[in-house]
Amino acid sequence: MRVRRVVTRRGRHIRGYFPSKKMKRMVAWESLLERDALLLLELSPGVVAYQEQPEKLAYWDGDAMRAHIPDLWASLHDERTLFIEIKPSSELTRPKVKTKYRQIAEQLQEQGLDYRLLTEEGIQQEPQFSNLKQLLYRYNHPASPLPTRSQLAAAFYLSESIPLAKCLERFGSDVTDTLIAQARLYVDLTQPLAPASLVQLPAGERHATIYF
């Protein structure tokens, strides 16, 4: 349960809810950049669960103990937990703000806690961000019927990877997009998707892929 209410009617900031299939509920966000970060958490195979405004963390700012509530918490496939703060890069040009988050990160690391500060540069990386936005529809509205595990394995019987064009020819675009969105097929989303893009069955560390 989050420690404070995110979406209120007061204030000039844009706020809203992200419909999370992974969490089976609406996840609150209080900036467009946070909303964009939720897309990455939702579609990252390596993120098992996540939550907004998870808990209060204490840190020493040089004068007094302060409370800090990270924007997000994520439970990862490798059993690590990660606290995440979302900030526009423009805010980090202010020395006081930059010092604050450096202190928080260092002190949480000393406590054995993972803490990551994400800006638009890490969240809205192209072409990955556009690829994920394109896949979101089929993630939430999967095509049907989908191939069985043995049918997928048969497609890769002669090779570990096949061109995206061959997947589209064999399964169709809706099914292919669904399989990629569900992480049942792997393609490098940091590159533009093209007919020659190589598609593989997920294996090993690809099950733990995170997009940030």
Structural class designation:
alpha+beta
Between the first and last Cα atoms, what is the distance in angstroms?
A: 24 Å
* Total count of domains: 2
The geometry reads as elongated
Helix content: 25-40%
Largest sheet: 4 strands, mixed
Organism: Chromobacterium sinusclupearum
Protein name: TnsA endonuclease N-terminal domain-containing protein
GO molecular function, one term: nucleic acid binding
In short:
The protein is of the alpha+beta class. The protein is built from 7 helices and 11 strands.
Keywords:
212 residues, alpha+beta, Trna Endonuclease, Chain: A, domain 1, 2 domains, four-stranded mixed sheet, three-stranded antiparallel sheet, 7 helices, 23% strand, elongated
What does this structure look like?
Residues 45-120 form the TnsA endonuclease N-terminal domain. This is TnsA endonuclease N-terminal domain-containing protein. The structure is a single chain. α4 (128-140) packs across α7 (173-181) and α6 packs across α7. The chain has helices at 32-43, 95-110, 120-123, 128-140, 149-155, 164-171, 173-181, and strands at residues 16-20, 25-29, 47-52, 57-60, 65-68, 72-76, 81-86, 114-118, 161-163, 186-187, 198-200. The chain contains seven helices and eleven strands. It has a four-stranded mixed beta sheet, sandwiched between helices. The chain has a three-stranded antiparallel beta sheet with strand order 9-11-10. The radius of gyration is 20 Å and the shape is elongated. It starts with 15 loop residues before the first strand and ends in a 12-residue tail after the last strand. It has two domains: 16-123, 3-Layer(aba) Sandwich (Trna Endonuclease, Chain: A, domain 1), CATH 3.40.1350; 128-208, no CATH class. β1 (16-20) and β2 form a beta hairpin. The protein is an alpha+beta fold and 212 residues long.
